[in-house]
Amino acid sequence: MTVNSFPELRGQRNSVRSETDIQGVVEQRIWHSMEEGQFENLPGKGKPLNLNTNPHADPAEDTLYRILSKNGCAPEWVQLNKDIRSQVSEW
């Protein structure tokens, strides 16, 4: 991202922008847009989200995970995560 993406941050001494600075600007822009009613006429407003698929995931990978889940299996990294969390809670 460039300074031009966030004019609110121009003029700051340090040319490196922290993640906190950018998050603050983004939150301000969202609140301002909400106050102006820019989110009132979005398609699907008031309807539940479809969480059956991940629109950002690779379709083949998403299908694979769905098949594994329906058959009571989990990817190795998910099972390892569960095992680690279980051992940590035991300690």
UniProtKB/TrEMBL annotation:
Occurrences of domain DnaJ homologue subfamily C member 28 conserved (ranges): 25-88
Location of the region described as Disordered in the Swiss-Prot/TrEMBL record: 1-21
InterPro entries (UniProt xref): DnaJ_C_subfamily_28, DnaJ_homolog_subfam-C_membr-28
Pfam families reported in the protein's UniProt record: DJC28_CD
Name of the molecule in the record: DnaJ homologue subfamily C member 28 conserved domain-containing protein
Lineage, highest ranks first: Eukaryota, Viridiplantae, Streptophyta, Embryophyta, Tracheophyta
